[in-house]
Amino acid sequence: GAGVSQSPRYKVAKRGQDVALRCDPISGHVSLFWYQQALGQGPEFLTYFQNEAQLDKSGLPSDRFFAERPEGSVSTLKIQRTQQEDSAVYLCASSPGGGRNNEQFFGPGTRLTVL
Amino acid sequence: DQQVKQNSPSLSVQEGRISILNCDYTNSMFDYFLWYKKYPAEGPTFLISISSIKDKNEDGRFTVFLNKSAKHLSLHIVPSQPGDSAVYFCAANTGANSKLTFGKGITLSVRP
């Protein structure tokens, strides 16, 4: 079956540009997470949706980062006025329910490079 | 402040031998622990998990041990196979929500 997909897989942006990263979760999955993985580090939590509701955005590093999931399925992570420190792999994960122990299924990630 | 620590960046073992990957945590609120495996250019893949009410969970060649008093867990792979070569992440969460806190990962190399 189809897993979590993300697009684009690679994105190069000039500093100051806006970017939009897309995540298509597994069909029917209620929960959706965004993580940021810097080089040599583990993934770090950014934000969490349960259906269309953004229940936790405590990990977003600044107000330049914005995420939405308007219909409770596809999600978009938007970064405004990109900076070099935003360069990282952005991972999306989904899980079947809001239960805390549910396994999270990860997409392949979008590698963002800001020049 | 790293709440989940994987202090060894890499491990190399011979095919057929045991691989032991270690993980330490500092947040006593963590009550569920997971191991993920990651190949280059792919997302992390769930491997095995353990609840804090248990001290061992086994799935085929993979066993996770949890020592709550020491805030330490380990992943054992027996026997190790070349296809196990990957980066392994330890992760944990609390009862408050489902977000995962990850360690930095350890690169396992299994030599044929």
Task: Summarize this entry quickly.
The complex is a heterodimer of chains A (115) and B (112). Chain A has 115 residues and is mostly beta strands.
Secondary structure blueprint with pairings:
The complex is a heterodimer of chains A (115) and B (112).
Chain A: E1 5-7, E2 10-13, E3 19-24, E4 31-37, E5 44-50, E6 53-56, E7 65-68, E8 75-79, E9 88-95, E10 105-106, E11 110-114
Parallel strand pairs in A: 2-11
Antiparallel strand pairs in A: 1-3, 3-8, 4-5, 4-9, 5-6, 7-8, 9-10, 9-11
Chain B: E1 4-5, E2 10-14, E3 19-25, E4 32-38, E5 45-51, E6 56-59, E7 62-67, E8 72-77, E9 86-93, E10 101-102, E11 106-111
Parallel strand pairs in B: 2-11
Antiparallel strand pairs in B: 1-3, 3-8, 4-5, 4-9, 6-7, 7-8, 9-10, 9-11
Q: What does this entry look like structurally?
A:
The complex is a heterodimer of chains A (115) and B (112). Chain A is mainly beta. In chain A, the strands form 2 sheets. In chain A, strands 2, 4, 5, 6, 9, 10 and 11 form a 7-stranded mixed β-sheet that branches. In chain A, strands 1-3-8-7 form a 4-stranded antiparallel β-sheet, with no helix packed on it. Chain A is globular, with a radius of gyration of 13 Å. Chain B has 112 residues and is mostly beta strands. In chain B, a hairpin with a 2-residue loop joins strand 6 and strand 7. Chain B is 0% helix and 54% strand. In chain B, strands 2, 4, 5, 9, 10 and 11 form a 6-stranded mixed β-sheet that branches. Chain B is globular, with a radius of gyration of 13 Å. The termini of chain B are far apart. The chains are: A mainly beta (115), B mainly beta (112). At the A-B interface, strand 4, strand 5, strand 9 and strand 10 of A face strand 4, strand 5, strand 9 and strand 10 of B.
